[in-house]
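Late entry, evening session. Most of the bench is empty. Finally got around to the prediction I had been postponing all week. Sequence below, unchanged from the version circulated by S.P.
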Amino acid sequence: MSLVVVGLNHRTAAVDLLEQITVAQSALPKALDDLISRPHLAEVVLLSTCNRTEIYARTTRFHDGIDDVRHFLAEHSGLDVDELGDQLYTFHDDAAVAHLFAVASGLDSMIIGEGQILGQVRTAWLSAEETGAAGSLVSRVFRQAIEVGKRARTETAIARHAVSVSSAAVQVAGERLGSLEGRRVLLIGAGEVSEGMAVALSGAGVAEIVVANRSQARGRELAQRFGGTSVALDQVLDALVTCDVLLTSTDAPGTLIERAGMEEVIQRRDGRALLVVDVAVPRDVDPGVGQVFGVTLLDIDDLKAIGEQSLETRRGEVGGVRIIIDEELERFRVETLAREVAPTISALRDRAEEIRTAEIARAQSRLCALDPEAAALVDQITNRVVNKLLHEPTMRLKNASGTDQGDLYSDALVALFALDEDFTSSPE
């Protein structure tokens, strides 16, 4: 069985493709059920964010398992499986583990070192566990990936003063307008990204934050924390008439603002320009809005320049994070190999115990003359002899696991003690 990851991210795909293939949080349970029902996928975790959609899976057959994932993504996105296949990257075994460690550390993010991805990795894993899609292998990999992400952020400065997608969206808006000070900003959404935007906006000196959200109570709570106001989603177009900037990031399955609605807004603004920054994937704003005179529309692709700037400021920390990833990958290998020899060790001890107990049973007619204390002593002595005989080969096999010598030891034990065969004690 192999561990694989199949997916695409901001480096390999434009936002058009990313939004076609993304899986909303609300659709995650159904998607996981679909994936785990496929014939060659034994365990699955699905990680889908604004920057990536990746499926981590333990496959029962390598190539067939990858085909199962590709067909799922094609069906989900409505794309041709062969056309989509050319856009996807695939890693397996050690490379798949190393990739996840890099993702959790923030090295594979558009904004290097950003912290939101670690929470997203954890959420993806927990969602898979809740639906029964995550088994022992992928859970072990994701648990260690979270540890790697924490180590990277505590032992290096990769996340120090890190720019997030939220702050990058506010930064690019400020750069386009010269400053956000005194501006009125409409924020659609009240999730983690939107909350980060509100924090950044507050620090940028905006005059007012207006929050619109599907759950009005949650939108009102976010707005009140920053001294702003809230509106219902069906009041967004009216609110835009008096706003300077629109920032949006929701997990809505379709667009919230269409071109026709924005054209009406612009007509009511008396010629004042409007800046729209949409970092949702799939997009909240119809791309056609960017063609409306007086509207500047930016999306997730427009944040990549800030991501490059972020990389420059943290380039010296990347090496330190890579060292952590290498160390943790080696630890994962060692622990995995130890698990692989464990069945051989267990089978060897079971075989020895079976022989010991069978011999005691054969001698039972002669041992019955012994008093209970003497009979117990015979059992203890034979048990100690077995343990002492097996101790050295067991330790040598554990210490050599993962090496050619270890493979030779394991194969020799299996062959010499017939551990791959049913054992029947020979007659006395």
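Two things to note before I forget:
The chain has three domains: 2-162, 165-303, 337-416.
Confidence is low (pLDDT under 50) at residues 423-428.
Will write this up properly tomorrow.
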